[in-house]
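Before relying on records like the one below, remember that each one covers exactly one chain. Contacts with other chains, cofactors or solvent are not represented anywhere in the record.
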Amino acid sequence: MIFDFKKDTVSLYTVADSTIIETMTYTNDATSLTVTKIEGESDCDNNMPGQYSYIIQGDVLLIKVITDGCEDRSSAIDSTRWTKWKDPHEVKVDDAILKQYAGVYQLDEAHPITISFEDGKLYAEGPNNRLPKSSLMAESDTKFFLKVAGVRWDFLKDTNGKVTGFISHEEKDDELKKVK
């Protein structure tokens, strides 16, 4: 999820499909943030503000509830850590290299991710992972950024140069094996 702060509103939306979960007005001072629902999915009353303390450490925003009568909102926001969004610098990678990455990868059998090569780009799709077909941005010959999820992937090769999988850098690093 992403917090998108504007002048006096903030939207909370999912990265995968850009669905807005909630739009709120906000005010803040040096240490606290007060939000009030304008519209969205939570059961919060539009007249019930929530107050949160926050600390910014470098590119990280830490949020903790002070008071909020809306359990839907406070359970989603309390004690969370948010990293500032940074778009990667995209580089051109030779088609022959990109084509090596096409295939099916999985952490487990229930959650395959299919990587396809089309029109000079790689695309990832994983219906069981709630991942719609989405382009991968190349940061190098082996490092890619899946913007819809805010996740970096590093493709792995064996000593013969054959692609064996990739590491997905999320909350923790997960290695997905190439199975097809």
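The chain has a mean pLDDT of 92.
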